[in-house]
Structure formats: C-alpha cells, structure tokens
Amino acid sequence: MFEKPSLVTRVAVGKGIGLVIGLAGFLMLPMFVPEVDWLPRWGLLFWYITFGAIIGMAGVFSWHPVLKIRMPWWLFAPLMGAWLNFVLTFFAYDLMAAVMASAFGGALVSPFWFVAEGAIIGLLIGFAATYLGGEGPETAAADQLGVDGRKEAG
Predict the structure, then answer these.
(1) Is 12 helix (H, G, I), strand (E, B) or coil?
(2) What's the pTM?
C-alpha cells in the first residue's frame, strides 16, 4: 500500500506535512492575534490537513486535458497551493489582515501574501509526495493491484 507509485502514500505524506504546518499555525496564531477565538485556530489546523490531502491527490493528474500540456508536480502543486490559500484569504480576510499587521507591522501588510505562502507550502508538499509516492495516473492504478500485480476483486 505504501510502495511507489501509490496514491495512498501521496495523500498520507500530504496530510502529514499539512498536519505539521497546521499545528504550527494552531499554536502560533495566538502570538500574532491574542484575542483570536478557538474556531479559527481549529479551522487553520484542519485547513492545512485538507490542503495537504488535496495536493497529494492532485498529483494523479499530470496532464491538463484542456490546455493539452503536461502538468509536472513542480508546476501544479504551487499553483494548487496558491489557489487554496487565495480562497482561505478571500473568506478569512479580516483575520489574515490582523495576522499580517501584527507579524510584519508596516511591511507586507496585505493578507494576500498568504497566496505566496500557499505556493511555497504546495511546492514542499508536492515535492515530498512525488518523491515518496510517485506521480501520474499510475499512482491510482498501482493501489488497485494485488500483491502479484493482478487487479484485486471488488
């Protein structure tokens, strides 16, 4: 199940890295915004676990059907990470603005810097997931094969 190529390995690696990053956010958020409630802290933790799982699953798609181009992990993972953090910033703009103002003062006050952070984390997760779990459609197909290389029943 955890051999290469494997979708299960990709998702597990993504969720593991997301858990570490989410825990860091969970623990450090009160340092930047002391009056923050528990709900955004838990949301940030679960966000990055989901973030990692999505990037892990997205590694199955190495070909863009509309653009007709190859989408290697080093292109797709940062784009996906940037998009996911854009959505997070879009819906949690006030909290992200408070974090940026507290963390950096007058410089880098735009909360949309989290989009760049998402691209960097996406690149990290994409690298680790591809290195440990492989890339492309064979990752999904490999998890359906039995020990002897034949498809399992069911």
Answers:
(1) helix
(2) 0.85
- Helix ranges (H only) for 33-112 are 38-58, 73-91, 93-104
Look at residue 11 and tell me if it is in a domain: yes
Q: What is the pLDDT of residues 46-67, one digit of tens each?
A: 999 999 999 999 888 888 889 8
Q: Whole-angstrom Cα distance, residue 95 to residue 84?
A: 16
Classify residue 85: in a domain, yes or no: yes
Task: State the Cα–Cα distance between residues 78 and 96, nearest whole angstrom.
Answer: 20
Cβ 151 vs Cβ 145: under 8 Å? yes
Query: Residue 130 belongs to what domain range?
Result: 7-142
Cα Rg, the chain, nearest whole Å: 18
The H or E element spanning position 114 is helix 113-133
